[in-house]
Amino acid sequence: MSIKLVVFDIAGTTVKDDHNVSKAFQAALKKYDYDVPLEMINPLMGYEKNQAITQMLRLHEQDKSKISTELVNHIHHEFIIQMINFYQFEPGIEPLPNVEETFKALHQLGILVGINTGFSKDIAETVVNRLQWREKGLIDYLVGSDEVELGRPHPFMIQKMMHEGGITDPLEVAKVGDTEVDVREGQNVGCRYVIGVTTGIFTREELEEYHPTHIIDDIAQVLDIISE
């Protein structure tokens, strides 16, 4: 049985990220007087951001009555503003090594390329537009965490792409990402390959704890894995 769809994360997996997402998340929390160190934020970066904000507030707000939907939405809105501005205008927004070449090679094999993310769709669109991945014909699907009922680690984003691609068997799908929640998402879908990549937030040792089928240091290794 061959792979028909490979789903990739964005920041840290396919797009260079020097903790920029975590720093924007940190700044959004700081605006509302929550001073959270990056080492506490990094592990949550693959999650849908409202969920990540809520988790941070539960840890840092002693008065739990203050943790309202309104507060979470305000912090998320600030995060969105910062990330859209960053991905639109910051110099140095670029794919990680071998990413675009890997997308092209997958297409040459007749395999669909999907992108999903813990970002809302508006941020994800900003990234893809900046890199012109649609214009270059590099991706087939883009799904943000706000387009489905629940984001990672739930399976709905990948299942949405599978439905659109007419794929019913998760063993025809591979998931690639740099965080714990990427790995668990792929596992919850039942993907044949769940591939952790060390180019982002998590180290090889940290990824090993979640038992992906493979851990790689270079995105091009995806091609070797799906050809096994």
Radius of gyration: 17 Å
Order of helices and strands: EHHHHHEHEHEHEHEH
Number of domains: 2
CATH architecture of the largest domain: 3-Layer(aba) Sandwich
What is the oligomer described by this structure? single chain
Number of strands: 6
Summing up helix and strand content along with how strands pair, one would put the structural category as alpha/beta
Largest sheet: 6 strands, parallel
Distance between the termini: 11 Å
Give the helix level as a range of percent.
40-55%
Summarize the structure.
The protein is α/β, with parallel strands linked by helices. The protein has helices at residues 20-31, 38-41, 49-60, 69-89, 99-108, 121-131, 156-165, 180-189, 204-208, 221-226, and strands at 5-8, 112-116, 141-143, 173-177, 193-197, 214-216.
Descriptors:
10 helices; 228 residues; globular; 2 domains; DNA polymerase, domain 1; Rossmann fold; 11% strand; alpha/beta; 6-stranded parallel beta sheet
Question: Which helices and strands, and how do they pair?
Answer:
Blueprint: E1 5-8, H1 20-31, H2 38-41, H3 49-60, H4 69-89, H5 99-108, E2 112-116, H6 121-131, E3 141-143, H7 156-165, E4 173-177, H8 180-189, E5 193-197, H9 204-208, E6 214-216, H10 221-226
Parallel strand pairs: 1-2, 1-4, 2-3, 4-5, 5-6
Report on the architecture of this protein.
The protein has 228 residues and is an alpha/beta fold. It has 2 domains: 5-17 and 95-226, HAD superfamily/HAD-like (Rossmann fold), CATH 3.40.50.1000; 20-89, DNA polymerase, domain 1, CATH 1.10.150. It contains 10 helices and 6 strands. It has helices spanning 20-31, 38-41, 49-60, 69-89, 99-108, 121-131, 156-165, 180-189, 204-208, 221-226; strands spanning 5-8, 112-116, 141-143, 173-177, 193-197, 214-216. Strands 3-2-1-4-5-6 form a 6-stranded parallel beta sheet. The longest helix has 21 residues, at 69-89.
